[in-house]
Structures are given as C-alpha cells and as structure tokens.
User: Which sequence fits this backbone?
C-alpha cells in the first residue's frame, strides 16, 4: 500500500493506472455538516502486473497532503483507455464532478452489474466480497470520522479493502456479463450515472422533491419559491438544506404565507435561526414573490395525470406479480426492470415507459403489454408463477 500526499506521487501512480485496463476507486467523505461532500480520502487499486500476484494499491490523502493538486487524478478519471470501477458509484462520481469538474469515463458500477447478475436488490459490497471474493470485511472502522488525522492502521486497512476486493468482483462480474450477453443491459444503466445532469441540483427544481398534500396553484408556487431560496442559500454557504429550513417547516410557512417577521414567528416548526436575519428575510421575500405571481405563472398539477386514464389497481397488482416472476426467472433485480411508478403508468394505459423498451421489454415489457391486452394470464404452480396464453374469445 502506498500513502500519497504529494502531487508528484499522485502523478506517478495515475500514470501507472493509465497504462492499466482498469482501476478500482472508492472515496471516504463527510457530508453531515455541509451541502457538498467533503473529500477526505481516495482509494485506488490496479490489477496485478507481470510477475506479481497482487496489483498495486494506494490511498490518496488530500487532508494530510495539504497543497497537493488532484489534477493527475482528474486526468486519470477522464482517460478513455482505463475503466474506472466503482461500487455504488453515484456519490463518488458526484464528488469528482463537483470538486474537479470531471465526469469519470468509462465507468463500471459493480452494484448495478450485480443486480443484473442475480445478486438481488441493491447488492451490498460486503455481500459481493463474501460471495465472489470469498473474503470478509472488518467493519469496526465503518463509522470513522474520515476528516480526523492521523488515521489508524485499522482505518487505513478498512479503506483499502474497499478497492482491493473490488478487483476480483469486477473481473468476475465483467466475465459473467460477457458470457450471458448482458453487458449492454448494464451499459444502459451506466449512461444515467455518466450524465452530468444527474449531479446538478437546480434551485428552480428543488420543490419537486417535496411532497405536498395540496395541489392549489398559489400554494405550490409558494412552496416552489421557498424551496428555491433554501437550495440557493444552502449551496452558497455549503450547509445542509435542513439547516436552513426543514420540509415540514417549509410547508407550514407556505400555508401561513407570512408577510412580516411577526407573522413568521407564528410558525411552530421553524428553527430559531430561521426566525431572524438573512434566512427570515429570504423566506419572507420568497413568499412575496409567490403571492405576486400572475395566475398564468403559477405551477399546476400535471394535467395528463389528473385528466388522463386512471390506474387500474387490479391490473397494477397483476403487473407486480408478473414483475416478481420475471425477476426471479431472469435473475435481474426487480427494481432495475421496473419501478412501482412504471407499473402504475402501464396500468393507466401509458406506453412511454422505460420498462417497455430495450432489454426490459425482452425480460418483462412484452409480457406486460400482453397481460394488459388480456392475451396472457398468470397461474401459481408451487412456489413459482407461470405465464400462459389466453385463447381469444369466440
């Protein structure tokens, strides 16, 4: 294991990685007190080189290596000749995208691959280490504060295990995908992980993540403006959005529509810090903006969902049974094939659904459409469900 704290050492290791077919990567970070993740450690491992039984591995310490440039790492992440292998890649990719402005490519996510290869829903790294690498993980350092220095030998070993076992897991899953012809299925999922839009949080769209009970246009406009202020404020000061105002308090403020600080003080759920100063003024300004909007500028409940075909609950239940059967038969995790929202959309008559296209159509979508048309039925046989053709009437 190499501990890297200088730009020169990082550049040397990344040069070796650029000559390798792949590099396994993981990160340790903190996010409890910030909006953006604070990068604390980067782990990397390479496949075995000629004459060796185990490949080189390194820990990159941006905290101990104060002043170290991560540009060599960013160059490696963008290098097209080396596959960047992660497990549950989304958080790691977001860190590199936000901090370095780089989108790792090409990438491979062993969690996604494992879901296609029969390892169940959201296959945990520990599970893959045990089942594929035939090893075990020491979890005593799981809750480490990775920003504190010095790190103990146990903590360093724990961090390194996240990439050394990953080499065996990647090679096993890549070979399995190749033999089953499912590599394109994983590539389809990785396209989303490799899309910069996946990691951009736009304040104008922040309100869409908030669950509301009312669809009144003026109320939704107020929620939108409050959420926009909260997101912008949290991003600019690098603090968690819940430190500005929590969702339940935001909805309460949207209902109260305060015009003054005195009005705002009546909100029962508001944090003390949000009752005065910049946050309070920002909340009041957001409410004023929403109340002044003309009717045509107000957000409305989706007209297609409100006025279009309604979900057939019995059909939706049958689709769930079919999905479970096809998931068990194919070995592909059900949630990767179709979401609950996909099933409800199909049961409501929509056909512009991801579960009905590409490889998902082969595994599930084609039978789902036949089920909707009454061309096939479902029957239980022991512990399994089989699909059978239904004779046309007459």
Assistant:
């Amino acid at each position: 294991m190499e501990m890297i704290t200088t730009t020169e050492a990082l550049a040397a290791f990344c040069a070796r990685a650029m000559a390798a077919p792949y590099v396994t990567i993981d990160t340790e970070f903190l996010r409890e007190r910030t909006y953006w993740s604070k990068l604390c450690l980067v782990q990397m491992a390479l496949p075995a080189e000629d004459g060796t039984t185990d490949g080189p591995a390194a820990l990159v310490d941006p905290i101990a290596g104060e002043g170290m440039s991560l540009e060599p790492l960013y160059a490696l992440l963008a290098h097209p000749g080396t596959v960047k292998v992660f497990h549950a890649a989304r958080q790691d990719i977001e860190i590199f995208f936000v901090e370095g402005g780089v989108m790792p490519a090409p990438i491979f996510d062993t969690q996604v691959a494992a879901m296609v290869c029969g390892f169940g829903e959201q296959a945990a790294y520990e599970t893959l280490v045990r089942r594929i690498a035939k090893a075990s993980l020491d979890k005593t350092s799981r809750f480490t504060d990775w920003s504190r220095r010095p790190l103990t030998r146990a903590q360093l070993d724990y961090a390194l295990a996240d990439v050394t076992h990953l080499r065996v897991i990647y090679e096993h899953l890549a070979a399995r995908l190749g033999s089953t012809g499912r590599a394109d299925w994983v590539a389809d999922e990785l396209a989303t992980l490799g899309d910069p839009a996946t990691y951009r949080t736009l304040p104008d769209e922040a309100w869409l993540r908030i669950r509301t009970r009312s669809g009144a246009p003026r109320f939704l406009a107020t929620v939108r403006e409050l959420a926009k202020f909260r997101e912008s404020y949290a991003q600019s000061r690098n603090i968690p959005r819940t430190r500005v105002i929590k969702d339940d308090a935001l909805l309460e403020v949207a209902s109260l529509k305060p015009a003054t600080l005195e009005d705002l003080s009546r909100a029962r759920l508001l944090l003390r810090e949000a009752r005065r100063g910049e946050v309070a003024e920002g909340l009041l300004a957001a409410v004023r903006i929403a109340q002044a909007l003309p009717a045509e500028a107000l957000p409305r409940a989706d007209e297609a969902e409100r006025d279009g075909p309604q979900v057939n609950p019995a059909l939706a239940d049958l689709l769930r049974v079919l999905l479970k059967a096809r998931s068990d038969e194919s070995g592909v995790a059900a949630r990767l094939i179709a979401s609950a929202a996909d099933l409800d959309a199909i049961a409501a008559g929509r056909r512009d659904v991801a579960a009905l296209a590409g490889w998902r159509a082969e595994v599930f979508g084609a039978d789902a459409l036949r089920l909707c048309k009454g061309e096939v039925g479902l029957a239980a046989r022991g512990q399994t469900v089989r699909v059978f053709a239904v004779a046309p009437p007459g």
User: Anything to note?
Assistant: The beta strands are 2-4, 22-30, 38-45, 57-60, 83-86, 107-109, 376-381, 384-389. The chain has three domains: 2-199, 203-297, 306-389. Residues 303-308 have pLDDT under 50 and may be disordered.
